[in-house]
């Protein structure tokens, strides 16, 4: 099979990824072998390739927004999945299921959690293996390409929206408008929110308005009205300050990224007083994934995608780094 590997993390224009041809793996007990039909390109993949995230596995294959067809199952506990099923393989790959975080339903905080495309090989390949307990049933009515971004961009956007504590009919600010943000915006709009988007890139602002945003401005622009909640999707710590300043009294800012550049010093009265708060977002739980995919089954989400052949995965990551992708990039073998 063809597979991409991070040879040595570094700037994407230095070509840290290389393609290889390797045998297809046999799934270990409790796992399934999946033929990749589509794999989304996430900014986390870029962080893995460039070394913003520490190396968890040398020469790892990135990719954790995988739509695929089950080829083989191994083990009695794989009974709920059969060959021929279309399934999703997402970021969260495993947890201990016994620690205090797992037992209270916060498996995303499990100290022993593992992740697709970081701890184990992901979907920038023609095949991958995944634990059956962590693969997902997928809603109908979507193509493989449309489904791929839902498996991380959609799920993490959904969790970020929950963490932002947006009140019914509230005013939401979204900072950055890529793969995850354009999906979270649609969830918020379906719930009756007023959405204001702050992002660089004219095409992204055009997409935001087309999806129903009330306004779309530059990344640090003030929205036209105070915000009840905000989500920062851009990995730019300097945007924390204008986002906090845009919040109304009691407002919440959720930071959705796994990586964020340094945050400048806060002015307590300007940025935090009147019970404004900042909340981080760490991965997701399987319950988050099920809730979002059930939402996607009930509400037809528009998924903006740019498709690349698997052989151009490095090109897709370079385009993502340079903000040349509208919506979400997706690899197709």
In words, what does this structure look like?
- The chain is an alpha/beta fold.
- The chain folds into 2 domains: 2-150 and 283-332, Medium-chain alcohol dehydrogenases, catalytic domain (Quinone Oxidoreductase, Chain A, domain 1), CATH 3.90.180.10; 155-280, NAD(P)-binding Rossmann-like Domain (Rossmann fold), CATH 3.40.50.720.
- It is 26% helix and 27% strand.
- The chain contains 9 helices and 17 strands.
- The chain has helices at 43-50, 100-103, 144-163, 179-190, 202-211, 240-246, 268-272, 286-298, 313-321, and strands spanning 2-6, 17-21, 31-41, 66-74, 86-89, 92-94, 114-115, 127-131, 135-137, 171-175, 194-198, 215-217, 227-232, 247-255, 277-280, 305-309, 328-332.
- Strands 3, 4, 5, 8, 9, 16 and 17 form a 7-stranded mixed beta sheet that branches. The chain has a 6-stranded parallel beta sheet with strand order 12-11-10-13-14-15.
- Helix 6 (240-246) links the parallel strand 13 (227-232) and strand 14 (247-255).
- Helix 3 crosses helix 8.
- The model has no long low-confidence stretch (mean pLDDT 96).
């Amino acid at each position: 099979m063809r597979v991409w590997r991070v040879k040595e993390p570094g700037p994407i224009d230095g070509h840290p990824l290389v393609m290889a041809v390797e045998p297809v793996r046999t799934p270990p007990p409790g796992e399934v072998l999946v033929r990749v039909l589509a794999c989304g390109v996430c900014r986390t993949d870029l962080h893995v390739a460039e070394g913003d995230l520490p190396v968890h596995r040398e020469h790892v294959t990135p990719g954790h927004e995988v739509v695929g067809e089950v080829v083989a199952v191994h083990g009695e506990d794989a009974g709920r999945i059969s060959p021929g099923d279309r399934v999703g393989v997402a970021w969260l790959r495993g947890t201990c299921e016994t620690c205090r975080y797992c037992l209270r339903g916060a498996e995303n905080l499990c100290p022993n959690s593992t992740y697709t495309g970081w701890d184990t090989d992901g979907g920038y390949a023609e095949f991958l293996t995944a634990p059956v307990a962590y693969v997902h049933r997928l809603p109908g009515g979507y193509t493989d390409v449309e489904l791929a971004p839902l498996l991380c961009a959609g799920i993490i956007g959904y969790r970020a929206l929950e963490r932002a504590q947006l009140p019914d009919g509230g005013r939401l600010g979204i900072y950055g408008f890529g793969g995850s943000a354009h999906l979270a915006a649609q969830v918020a709009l379906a719930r009756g929110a007023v959405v204001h988007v702050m992002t660089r890139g004219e095409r992204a602002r055009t997409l935001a308005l087309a999806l129903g945003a009330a306004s779309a401005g530059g990344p640090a622009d003030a929205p036209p009205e105070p915000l009840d909640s905000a989500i920062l999707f851009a990995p730019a710590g300097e945007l924390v300050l204008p986002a906090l300043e845009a919040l109304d009294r009691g407002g919440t800012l959720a930071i959705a990224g796994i990586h964020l550049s340094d945050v400048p010093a806060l002015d307590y009265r300007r940025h935090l007083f009147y019970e404004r708060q900042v909340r981080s977002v760490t991965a997701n739980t399987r319950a988050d994934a099920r809730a979002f995919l059930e939402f996607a089954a009930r509400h037809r989400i528009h998924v903006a995608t740019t498709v690349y052949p698997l052989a151009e995965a490095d090109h897709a990551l370079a385009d993502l780094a340079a903000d040349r992708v509208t919506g979400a990039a997706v690899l197709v073998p």
